[in-house]
Amino acid sequence: AGHDDTTLVLQDDGDLVLFDKDGSTLWSTGTALGPTGLAATKSLAVGKRLDSPDGRLSLRVDADGLRLELDGRAVWAVIPAVPDEKLQLTLRKSGNLVLRGTDNAVYWSSETAGTKHADLELDAGGVVLRAPTGQELWRADVPPGLFDATTTDTDCAEVTTPVPLAATVLTETGIRVHPCMVVAIDALLAAAKADGVDLGGWGWRSNEQQRALRARNCTPSGCRPMTATPGTSRHERGLAIDFTVDGRVVSAGSTGWAWLVQNAHSYGLKNLPGEPWHWSVDGW
């Protein structure tokens, strides 16, 4: 009361704010969304959070712990034995994500030191720590079925252009691919494991990540290793995987390479000559 010419505004960040005629804030709902990511050397203190653009997914730090929440429901958490008002989640320059508390007590770590310029961000499936190349270093996922997501029976041959993150899905082992590949990749990885070969890898990457990779690997005289022009990479379509074996990139002569050469064709994958680790639906 007592204020004329006020304006009620629903801001882009989700906060409903009542402004006085001079632009000052008289009242707000306090529902503004937090940032979607955390850059290297930055921290989240108690009361702070990351939010997805639609507001459904949050990574929040409170005195009683670190939580990944979907629509307010915790789906992953680190809970100290006793509440700690000094809790702070920090993405260190080394690439290690660390939850510390009073007297610098370490409650949890992603154990990913060794990759500079990593970024923590919320994506369509959870929270992910990524290297500048797009490689997923660590992630916590929303359990399958909680999102009202639908998959598609699209033939991979019909996927001819880059796809957004929202159009991809995760395999059971956490490799992000186009839905047309997920059944075959899950079957391939299960078969390899049954044969004693521990395959992993990473699949989809964004156009921005492909551009960064091209800039890093290429000069006017060529690219080392070979790096597709942004917009043409099968990774951007979710149709390629760079495989690892026992946590290391597959190389010629490795057990992973030998297994893939013998079996990958049965799951619809072809190798890109010169890159033992790179397999896609058409060999590019």
Automatic annotation (TrEMBL):
GO molecular function, one term: peptidase activity
Pfam families for this protein: VanY
GO biological process, one term: proteolysis
Ranges for domain Bulb-type lectin: 1-112
Protein name: Bulb-type lectin domain-containing protein
